[in-house]
Amino acid sequence: MLDKTLKAFVWMVVLLLSAPVFSGSSSDGEPVDVTEMIMHHIKDAHEWHVLTYTDDNDGKQHVSIHLPIILLDDGLKVFSSEKLYHSGEVVEVTVHGKKDHYYANKELGYAVFHETIYKLNQEGALDFDEEGHATNAKPYDFSITKNVFALFFSSILLIVLMTAVVKSYKNDGMHPPRGLARFVEPVVVFIRDDIAKANIGEAKYRKYMPYLLSAFFFIWINNLLGLIPIFPGGANLTGNISFTFALAACTMLITVFSGNKHYWKHIFATPGVPWLLLPIMIPVELVGIFAKPFALMVRLFANITAGHIIILALTGIIFTFGSAAWSGLSIPMSLFIGVLELLVAFLQAFIFTMLSALFIGEAVAEEH
Amino acid sequence: MDLITPDLGLVFWTGLNFIILMFILTKFIWKPIMSAVNKREDNIQEALDMAKNTKAEMEKLQTQNANLLKEARIERDEMIKEAKATSDNMINSAKGKAKEEADKIVENARTSIEAEKNAAVSELKNQVATVALEIAEKILREDLSSDEKQKQLAETFAKDINLN
Signal sequence: where (chain A) (predicted)? Predict the structure, then answer.
C-alpha cells in the first residue's frame, strides 16, 4: 500500500520536474538565452506565458493567459494585457549597445519594457538614459500580474483544502482526524506546541496562533505551487521580494504593537548599559526592530529564488550545450534539487513562522 | 536591480490578500480546528487523570480490604480465645460444683450411714438388752436357786458387762 503510494509520488515528481524541459524547448538552430529564460521565470509578468509551439507554417505560436492591467494614473485604468503585448506594436530598440524591445500601445499611451509599465512620451515612444533604463514616467501599477494571480489562486486553494480539513471536526471533534485532517492536524499541533508555545509562552500564545498558522500554510502552499512548472503553479511568488516584504512587515507590525513595557525599556534604556552609551545603543536597538523582519524578508526571498534558479539552470544545461544527451546529467540533478526544494518549501515556511514567533515572544516576554 | 526592489502593486495585493485570508481562515478554519484539538486533548487528559485516580482509589480500597481482613482475623482469634476461656471456666466451675455436690452427697451418705449405724447399734443394744434380760430372767429362774450360784453368776455377768 505504502509502496504503491510512494511509487506514484516519485513518478509524479519526476513528471512534474521534467515539464520545464518540454516547455523550454525551442525550434532548431535558435540558441536559447538561458539567463534570459531564468530571469523571465523568476520575475513577475503581466501575462502568464504557458507554452510556445511551432505551427505548420513554422511560425511560433504562444499560449498565454492575458491578465488584467490596473493602473492608477489620473483615475483608474483597467485593460487586458493583450492590448499591450499583442494589439500594440513591438518596438525594437538598441539600448546600452544591446538589442532589446518593448511593447507599446499608442491608443492607450502606455508601453511595457522589461515587465514595467511606462507612459509613452509625446512622440509615442520611450526615452532611455545611458545606462539603458527607461526614463519615462511610471503610473502606479496595481495590475493582476502573474504573482497576484498566483496569490489569489493559492488563497482559494488553501481555503478549499482547509474547508475539506475542517469537515473532519464538524461532528464532535472527539474521534481521531480523518482524511486531509490527518495530515494537517500534526502540523497545526506542531505550530502550536513547538513554535507558538515554545517561543511566546503558554500564557500569551493563543492571540498569535491565527497569524502563525496562516503565515505558515500560506508560505508553504505558495512554495509548493512555485515548484509546479506549469500553470497555475510555477509563479515565483514566495521568491518575490514584494511578497516577502509584505509578510515580514506583518510580523514587524505585530511585534511592535505587541511590545510591552519591558520590550520598549530594553530598546530605550537597555538594562546594564551606562547612560552615556545610550545615544549609541538606542539607534542600534531601533535598527534592530527593522533588521529582524528584514532578515525574514531576505531569507525567504533568497532561498526560494535560489531554488528556482538552480532547477532552471540545471535544466538549461541541455540548451546551453544544445544536446539532448546532457539530459542524462541535468534531469537527475534537477530532480535531486527539486526533491530538496520540497524540503526547503517546508523548511522556509517553518523558519519564517518560527522566527516570527521568536520576535513576538521577545516583545511580549515578562522581565525575568 | 528590480529583482530586489519591492513592487508597490504586489506589496499592496499581498498585504490585502493575506489579511483577508487570515481573517477567513481564522474564522472558519483555525478556530474550529484548534477548539476541537484542544477539546480532544482535554478529554484525553481528563480520561488519563480519571484512570489514575481510579487506580489510586482501587489501591486504597485494596489496602483497606487487607486491613479489614487482618482485623477480622485478629477479632476471630480473640473470640476463639475468649470462647475457650469461657468454656474452660464453665467446665472448671461445673467440675467444682459437681465435686461439691458429690462431696455433699458423700457427706450426707456418711451422716445417714452414721445415723443408721447409730440407730442400728442402739436397736441392737436394746435387743441385746432385751435378750440379755430374757436370758438373765431364764438363767435367773434356773440358777438362782442357790446362793452360790447366784453369786457366781452375778460375778460372771459383771465381767461380761465390763467387756462390753
Answer: 1-23
